[in-house]
Amino acid sequence: MNHTPVVFIHGTWLHALSWESWAERFASRGFHAFTPGWPGEAASAWEMRRSSEALAGIGLDVLTDHYAKIVRSFETAPVIVGHSVGGLIAQHLIGANIGRAAVAIAPAPINDIPLPASPARLWTPGQADAAEQLVSLSPEQFHQAFANTVAAEESHRLFERYVVPTPHRLLADLGCAGAVRSPRAAVDVGNADRGPLLLISGQEDLLVPDSVTRAVYKQYGDSTAVTDLKQFADRAHSLVIDSGWRFVADYVFGWLDERGLRAHLP
Asked: Which residues contact residue 15 at a Cβ distance below 8 angstroms, ignoring those fewer than 6 apart?
């Protein structure tokens, strides 16, 4: 029996292990789940915080090409699920007809949609270490900006398990602190031949506010391709890793089923 492949793409300040619960749940539902990390990513967040030089210099171009190659490597086009910058990449790929369908969760803004102020407050030019060119979050910053709807104890646990530094260059490519946004942030929103796309937002998200995701949704308004939006109340940017992640994952299962994207290929 052939299983539908699903490729998960994590976002800034998170390790690929942030998808571990999703991968297990998708596999239990009959999907073939893959959680490939970024180039040079170590096996754990702890290792990345200890020595993360391999991430230095990675930009949106490198990440997009990295995941495009992975998605194209499957004999059967996979579903792509991305969070944060992973959600931007998922949209870029599906807009280029790479992949079978895409789910973009709290995605970094595409095209000319302004970047919210919150990410910029976490980084200003010159903050990163000159040698490593990486930007780290403190546990307090993570709780305030990323996991702002959960208790301090849960936020600390999530930080220890999943949080890593992120490349200075990647934040610049996303347009942080007034930097010029990378051309790879452009998405073909008018492509009528692409696969279905689901956009998901958390209404208490401070890093990628619900208003930003709604603005992204509106950009697809003239396309006849399937584009859906789901908003989760009382959820922050941590909605893929915090204690409510199952509600988001189960909604994705239902959406895939409605679109005929089932675990087993016909």
From this structure: 37, 41, 44, 45, 48, 162, 163, 164
pLDDT at res. 198: 98
CB under 8 A, 24+ apart: contacts of 128-136? 128/168, 132/52, 132/53, 132/56, 132/165, 133/56, 133/57, 133/167, 133/168, 133/169, 134/52, 134/55, 134/56, 134/165, 134/166, 134/167, 134/168, 135/165, 135/166, 135/167, 135/168, 135/171, 136/49, 136/165
d(CA 89, CA 185): 8
Ranges of the chain whose pLDDT falls below 70: 1, 117-132
Torsion angle in degrees (nearest 10) through CA of 100, 103, 107, 109: 50
Closest by alpha carbon to 179, among 219, 119, 129? 119
Structure tokens at 91: 């949209």
CA distance 216 to 113: 7
Q: Which tokens sit at 175?
A: 């347009």
Please spell the DSSP secondary structure of 174-238, one letter per residue: TTGGGPPPPGGG---TT-TTSPPEEEEEETT-SSS-HHHHHHHHHHTTT--S-EEEEEETT--TT
Amino acid at 209: P
pLDDT the model gives residue 131: 36
DSSP, res 114: P
Q: 7: part of which helix (H) or strand (E)?
A: strand 5-9
Q: Name the DSSP class of 124.
A: -
pLDDT of 109 reads: 94
Which among 165, 155, 156 has a CA at the least distance from the CA of 58?
Answer: 165
d(CA 67, CA 6): 12
Give me 183's structure tokens: 């051309």
